[in-house]
Amino acid sequence: MRRLWDHRHRRCRRPYGIGLHALQHRGQEAAGITAFDGTHFVSQRQLGHVADNFTSQKLIDTLKGHSAIGHVRYSTAGGSSMRNVQPLFADLATGGFAVSHNGNLTNAWHLRRQLVRHGSIFQSTSDSEVIIHLVATSTYRSLYDKLIDALRKIEGAYSLVILTRDGLFGMRDPLGVRPLVMGKLGDSHILCSETCALDILGAHYVREIEPGEIVIISGEGSGQTVKSIKPFAPQNPRPCIFEHVYFSRPDSLVDGLSVYDVRKRIGAELAREAPVDADVVIPVPDSGVPAAIGYAAQSGIPFELGIIRNHYVGRTFIEPSDHIRHLGVRLKHNANRWQIEGKRVILVDDSIVRGTTSLKIVDMVRQAGAREVHMRIASPPTRHSCFYGVDTPERSKLLAARMDIDAMRDYIHADSLAFVSIDGLYHACLLPEGRNNQQPQYCDACFSGDYPTHLTDQENDRDQELALFVAP
Ligand code: AMP
To answer: From the DSSP assignment, how many helices (H) and strands (E) are in the chain?
Structure first.
């Protein structure tokens, strides 16, 4: 789910929405902003894209204040109704509390059941709301202590920005599964999921928020201070490797690495691991482009844009229903027949999830006259669902969970199919020894099934819990 952005800006030209606009690729269902002027909190939440909803001056003028947090949502938990649009807000004993959450909690339903038993009244079906109730019901006195108390109870992946009258809090879970970075524009500090949101504001990158770190930004202008605390026992970080494969924008810096460079190196690894005699390397745009550049450079086979993408269609995968997804992929890509006809084609894409995209693209390339079609995938087979905020479907819908590679090849109608190895992927992330299987350096659960946290809600009978708390 969701990506966040937070901004403290002194003289209010209010560039609200611009940072969120740069993070639109991370969630397209809904967007929201909460601003604080020192006394009042004001929120605007809308279904749909940032550019369609947060450009009206009238709306922006309602968001008065010197600090704000925002959010773009794509639902991995809780569904896409208005009541789940973030930032979530509550008036607590300690004052207003607005929260934007990137990630997914793996014990949210379990906690929710306990909280409801003790009288909490939930407003949404979002996993993120448990954070508010845990803070509200904590018996500690100060907001800091209540927050830490709450964080100690949650499991899973969370990068959070929280706007309160005591300042802005930014934090990452102890494994640092989801990203969060800090930047600066003049005297103002900015927290956001990806550095591309800093670029659009003309802000400079300062650093990542570390796994398990909480930063508290308070004061205004040149008096602004940043305090850092680390209340958890240190653990080996497990940032999500899928950020490099697919999720982050290629112009972002993630885990200190250029996403674009990592993707090119994955392509080069793939060319070394799975070479094939062919005439042309063609990316599945946009997500396959950097890896295809790397594959072409390593193999010496020419790179061509043999598939053209219609840029007025959003990411297919992110549209929730299967029907829209099927329609979406046809609207999105077209074969550039003059680069394909009579050729042996290597197609490069970042991943295969359900196999819908690959099947359609391979057929399209064949219909455009390709002699052979070889599919190369810049990640290992996605065999397991993600419970940490990347929207993969249930396991039974993952092509690689249902079939071996030969069967997948036949299913997508390709002449050959190969995936980069997990070690190849780690090499591309500048880990020459590959994956340390005793102490993996990333969360790669979608490929390995090695989940770095408890999956409490999966272990319990989640359906039964859902039946208890979700109105029909
Ligand atoms: P599928 O058609 O279901 O096999 O999905 C694969 C396509 O969706 C690839 O071309 C990826 O670029 C893209 N994709 C992979 N994972 C995700 C994700 N978690 N969210 C959105 N798109 C994705």
So the answer is: 18, 21
* Nearest Cα to Cα of residue 162 among 137, 128, 185, 196: 128
pLDDT of residue 471: 43
Buried b vs exposed e over 416-449: b needs ≥16 C-beta within 10 Å? bbbbbbbbbbbbbbeeeeebeeeebbbbbbbbbe
Give the other-Cβ count within 10 Å of 228's Cβ.
12
Task: State the pLDDT at residue 2.
Answer: 43
Q: Is the pLDDT of residue 40 over 60?
A: yes
325 in ligand 1 pocket by Cβ < 6 Å? no
**Average pLDDT of the segment spanning 356-375:** 96
pLDDT given at position 5: 58
The amino acid occupying position 15 is P
- What's phi and psi for 279, nearest 5 deg? -100, -25
What pLDDT sits at residue 472? Answer: 35
Q: What is the CA radius of gyration of the chain?
A: 23
Cα torsion through 149, 154, 159, 163, rounded to 10: -40
Separation of CA 353 and ligand 1 centre (Å): 6
Contacts of 326 (CB under 8 A, 6+ apart): 356
Average pLDDT over residues 206-235: 95
350 lines ligand 1 (CB under 6 A): yes
Q: Give the distance, in angstroms, between the CA of residue 14 and the centroid of all CA atoms in the same chain.
A: 25
Q: Residue 10 pLDDT > 50, yes or no?
A: no
Alpha carbons within 13 angstroms on the beta-carbon side of residue 129 total 20
> In residues, how long is the chain?
472
Kindly state if the Cβ of 313 falls inside 6 Å of ligand 1. no
What are 102's two structure tokens?
A: 């990137």
For residue 443, say whether it is annotated as part of any ligand binding site.
yes
Nearest CA to ligand 1 atom 15: 351
Nearest CA to ligand 1 atom 14: 317
Over residues 292-334, the pLDDT tens digits come to 999 999 999 999 999 999 888 755 455 556 666 566 566 789 9
Residue ranges and CATH numbers for the domains of the chain are 3-238 (3.60.20.10), 244-451 (3.40.50.2020)
How far is residue 30's CA from residue 233's CA, in Å, rounded to a whole number? Answer: 35
Report d(CA 408, CA 412) in Å as an integer.
Answer: 6
Mark out the alpha helices in 209-334 (DSSP H runs).
242, 259-273, 289-299, 322-332
Which tokens belong to 328? 């979406």
Distance 356 CA to ligand 1 centre (A): 9
pLDDT at 322: 64
Q: Answer whether 122's CB lies under 8 Å from 133's CB.
A: yes
Does the structure show a pLDDT above 90 at 56?
no
> Atom 17, ligand 1: which residue's CA is nearest?
317
**Selection from 369, 219, 367, 212 nearest residue 280 by Cα:** 369
